[in-house]
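Re: weekly structure request thread

Next one in the queue (154 aa):
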Amino acid sequence: MLKFIQSLMDLNVVLLAKAKSATIYDEALALYVAKDYTSALPLMKEAAALGSLPAMSMLGTMYLMGRGTAENGVDAERWLKKAVDGGFEGAISVLGMAYATGSAGIEVNTSLARQLLTQAAEKGESQSARMLEMMDKGEGMFRKLKSVKVNRLG
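Done, posted below.
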């Protein structure tokens, strides 16, 4: 009986943290949308630490783009991976694009980028589909990829 009561108490703690993280995330998102990134950042960190998957994704994006903080590829990758691993689909394309472009100093990993971008594109994410197309055609920032392929073949 004691284990059952403890389980109920643990569940209650988890549910309260989830509700708190949702409230904090909503506040952070409102500040972010208003372009008050500096004020949004600590709230986004708090919501992410409490387990909010959308907050983890947004926090990773903030680190990736240097919004409210300096660009930080290590933290961007860490938070985006947590969001993806938690099942948050919105983070898949962002992480894929980060691996494709090397944003914020993240190491370019075209095979992982393709895997993530393909996964997002298959779910209807049009930017991911476009980035894959650009990679395949060697367009824009991906001209180097095409020349590397040509040099390896030649």
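DSSP finds eight helices and no strands in the chain. Residues 147-154 have pLDDT under 50 and may be disordered.
Next request, please.
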